[in-house]
Sequence to fold (200 residues):
Amino acid sequence: MTELRTRIEEVVSGEPVALFMKGTPALVMCSNSERALHALRSAGAPVTAVDILPDPHIREELSALSGWPTIPQVFIRGELVGGADIVEELAASGELEQKLEQSLGPEYRNGTERVVDVLA
Amino acid sequence: MTAMAIERLQPLLERAFPDATELEVVDRTGGGDHFQVTVASRRFEGLSLVDQHRLVYEALADPLEDGTIHELRIKTKGPT
Fold:
């Protein structure tokens, strides 16, 4: 297993909410990543963002791991929640907040947004 | 170009969801590579949204792989 794959797995399983996106929350490079970020923020999710653009291997390894072909990808406590369409749908119905509360506890909104790098 | 891409996607979905009560492919931008797909099928019943979308990705694996689809938006529903 590659070091990169290991690092991605650590983020997926270790971060409360992981968002693999094109760009960063400060500089989003794709409208679907923007939609996912917006939906997560609207639900108060403590987003840990990973920019997949610096190296194509990030996306390759991530999709091999998740079996999900497109970006963005959102994980809550290691579980793939989906891409922009699903996260938007869950946010609109209120299910996203329920899921966050169930998975992370009632204080989940106290977490902070941050960016992590999976490259060595 | 646009029509060609839709003509390719539509039959792939029809084959994967022969029972679909609703099946629509829309070229969102007119550029022939950004699509909105809507499918209503009994195959989705009892599945999580992730697994529902996975079925659509499976049906469109080839055009996703070869770059025909640059961006895909998916809406899945139970039979309508």
Remarks:
- Chain B touches chain A at residues 49-50, 53-54, 57, 61, 64, 71-75 (CB under 8 Å).
- Residues 2-77 of chain B form a domain with the GMP Synthetase; Chain A, domain 3 fold (CATH 3.30.300.90).
- The first strand of chain B starts at residue 22 and ends at 27.
- The mean pLDDT of chain B is 93.
